[in-house]
Design brief:
Blueprint lengths: L13 H5 L20 H16 L6 E5 L13 E6 L10 H6 L3 E8 L2 E8 L4 E6 L4 H15 L1 H15 L7 H4 L1 H13 L13
Parallel strand pairs: 2-5
Antiparallel strand pairs: 1-2, 3-4, 4-5
């Protein structure tokens, strides 16, 4: 069977399991869902400049990802940023300088075998995901956002899943409660990607 290089197996509890890796709490909790705000692009631009000024020798790629990067999409008011550095594991090269400008390390883990460091920022509320070159998850994030921008029906399905998940119990379950819809959207994106073959893999 053909498998898209960005495919990941379906998991309905990955985020809840991941909470065991948490090493600190974020400065500000995510807060409730909001309609898309134009200010999110401005907030990302300010954070991008802050990061590049703090660690100019480390920034290989930086991008606005997640729901706040998709116009028209319901989102929690948290700016998600993917940052690629030469080596995410080499924290001595970047962490202290990011902490000096207000970021806080809250996760030191790996996702799908790729080293990952998650930092947060207080105002504006943000997640900074640090990766090494070639990591799969930033590529998945970019593909997902691009698909939602181009497919309003899936954007609406995702928004509906967000609303339903927000009514669930426990903040740690929010991402897991919308995971089925996320997986299905990725499947549609993979199947229609002309650059890579992918045979359908429906959820169990």
């Amino acid at each position: 069977m053909a498998t898209h290089p960005l495919w990941r197996p379906y998991s309905s509890a990955a985020n809840a399991v991941r909470q065991a890796e948490r090493i600190a709490q974020r400065q500000v909790q995510p807060g409730p869902l909001q309609e898309h705000q134009d200010r999110w692009a401005t907030e990302y631009a300010a954070l991008r400049l802050l990061i590049k000024d703090a660690i100019p020798d480390q920034v290989l790629e930086i991008s606005h990802v997640g729901s706040t990067a998709v116009a028209g999409l319901l989102a929690k008011p948290v700016i998600d940023i993917d940052l690629t550095v030469p080596d995410a594991v080499d924290e001595l090269a970047y962490l202290a300088r990011l902490e000096a400008v207000g970021f806080r390390l809250i996760f030191r883990d790996d996702i799908g075998g790729d080293a990952h460091r998650q930092l947060t920022f207080g105002a504006p509320n943000a997640n900074l995901h640090v990766w090494s070159p070639g990591a799969v998850e930033p590529q998945r994030h970019a593909l997902f956002a691009a698909w939602l921008r181009a497919h309003p029906a899936d954007r609406d399905r995702y928004a509906a899943a967000k609303r339903a998940a927000a009514e669930g119990v426990g903040a740690s379950r929010y991402n897991d409660l919308k995971s089925a819809v996320v997986y299905d959207i990725y499947e549609r994106a993979f199947i229609t990607d002309s650059a890579h073959g992918h045979d359908p893999r429906p959820r169990p």
